[in-house]
Amino acid sequence: MSDRSGPSLTFNSADPRASIHQATMQDRRTAAILARRRRRMQILLCQILCFVVLIGLWQWQTATGHVSAFLYGSPSGIFAALIATIRDGSVWTDLTATALETLAGFALGNIIGTTLGLSLWYSRFISQVLQPFILALGSIPIIALAPITIIWFGTGFASKVAMSTLSVVVVSIIIAYKGAMGVDPDQINLMLSLRASRQKIFRLIVIPASMTDIFAGLKLTVGFALVGAIVGEFMSSTNGLGHEIFKAGSLYAISAVFAELVVTVILALVLSSIVTRVERWLLPWRHDLS
Amino acid sequence: MTSLKRPDTPLQALDLGKAFLTDAGEELDIIRSVSFTLERGEIVSLVGPSGCGKTTLLNLLCRLIEPSQGTVLWNGRESDGVPAGVGYMLQKDLLLPWRSAIQNVMLGLQVKGGTRAAHRARAKELLDQLGLGGFADHYPSTLSGGMRQRVALARTLAPEPEVLLFDEPFSALDFQTKILIERDTLRLVREMQRSLLLITHDVEEAVSLSDRVIVLSRRPSTIVSEHRIELPGDRSNLIALRESTGFAHYVRQIWTELDVQ
Ligand SMILES: Nc1ncnc2c1ncn2[C@@H]1O[C@H](COP(=O)(O)OP(=O)(O)O)[C@@H](O)[C@H]1O
Ligand SMILES: [Mg+2]
């Protein structure tokens, strides 16, 4: 849209030119959507091609014996292992266990992290005091905390959730805080000129303005939450995808390891697509930006 | 001093000065001493070279920053904190991208309180007056620069502020868009009988819109001169106004004062 249309949008909105203007905007929009869709199809096609070639090469090399299927697994072996776990139903219990741990850790970590991160906006002093502690906590490799979480939370569900939460919470704090502090100071001045209270500024400006960053954080931390849960399962567990991967690995059942990995990847993709969908639904204004 | 406090004058700046402390620890004098008034219903422009402290002065007036010296009086009184009834508008439209045009216009009303329905009605009325009635539910990202600034103008006017403080609000717009929004601003400010302090570096804009133009010097800034703009004919016809001889005279005069210092 250009400002040349300026004269058509002064004074009265009944001006027919304004609606013509909207109509051409609509046409252009449709054309752009079609072009984007075509491009997306091309990308998808190339992605499928890459996948098929890779799997084909792998299968061919292991079938001819150039590459050891025992050490590297094979696509057909992975497929067979997948079918087997689906048949005996174990994949569902493992999937559910890991998914629940991940979701609980993801939710807990992000609720704590976002609340803390955003509320640090209220006091520059407190945030500066806490900064080194947050950074120190962030630099701890989460796996190093696994033994302690087992001592504190036992070997069951709770310790996996704790690992998952820990993997999420620091990143979540930092992202929410950055989002809150990234608000344009002129925007704050505008609110101050309206004599808005700090609490109103927080609610009307800071929280919604941070949403873009917070959702970027959610997309990032959904993966971290899954890693945390799986690391927790590696340490001690009776079920879960991490448990199965660990067990199959120690039995040199490489195809079974890959089969569980495939399930894990599917879980990760499903979880992150849920986050994307929720974002689209909660932040409708973001569509218009691209 | 007491005789200077005029309760009928919306805004008085008395011997205002501001120095910033630089990172090196030195005092940087930005505004030396500035005194002026804004009377009820008056449009006054402040022009000055870029970086002379115009934005700083505006922030001093509405108490977003503290002066190093001098006083600001709102209706004859010193206000602690931001005074009530200020409409603050910048070059940046500062529209909230997650709010539709009408919701952006409602922002100031929402801060003041009241019912949502009343806010919506008032916002719609202003959008209609600014020719944006059909775009009420559009998000800012789908509007042109000129339209966005119109929405910002509606947002500023919605809470019916007594005094408008505008900081180069039209300087990012192309000439045609600018003239149109200037004309609408002028019409609404006059209709609503508001007082407007307009900061600009555009001398022609200052002369065409104002009752008075105050010229500021380079940093540390002081007032160089003040011009009462008296032009014949219809002041709302901004294009015709620019062709009158008086207009060119004022513009030339102010340009000289801006440059020769
Ligand atoms: N908070 C601050 N600290 C130090 N210097 C500042 C600060 N704010 C503005 N300045 C300086 O004051 C001068 C005037 O700025 P400004 O008021 O924005 O000028 P103008 O609006 O006339 O272009 C600039 O040189 C700027 O660098
Ligand atoms: Mg400025």
TrEMBL record, chain A:
Organism listed in the record: Acidisoma cellulosilyticum
Record's keyword terms, sorted: Cell membrane, Membrane, Transmembrane, Transmembrane helix, Transport
InterPro entries per the UniProt record, alphabetical: MetI-like, MetI-like_sf
GO cellular component labels: plasma membrane
Transmembrane segments: 43-60, 103-122, 134-155, 161-180, 201-231, 251-276
Keyword Transmembrane helix: yes
Residue ranges annotated for the ABC transmembrane type-1 domain, each copy included: 95-275
BP-aspect Gene Ontology terms: transmembrane transport
Protein name as it appears in the record: ABC transporter permease
Principal location: membrane
PANTHER family: ABC TRANSPORTER PERMEASE PROTEIN HI_0355-RELATED, ALKANE SULFONATE ABC TRANSPORTER-RELATED, MEMBRANE SUBUNIT
UniProtKB/TrEMBL annotation, chain B:
InterPro entries noted in UniProt: AAA+_ATPase, ABC_transporter-like_ATP-bd, ABC_transporter-like_CS, ABC_transporter_ATP-bind, P-loop_NTPase
Domain ABC transporter: 11-243
Any one GO molecular-function label of the UniProt entry: ATP binding
SMART domains xref list: AAA (SM00382)
Keywords associated with the record: ATP-binding, Nucleotide-binding, Transport
Entry superkingdom: Bacteria
A Pfam family recorded for this sequence: ABC_tran
Gene3D superfamilies linked: P-loop containing nucleotide triphosphate hydrolases (3.40.50.300)
Family: Belongs to the ABC transporter superfamily.
Protein name: ABC transporter ATP-binding protein
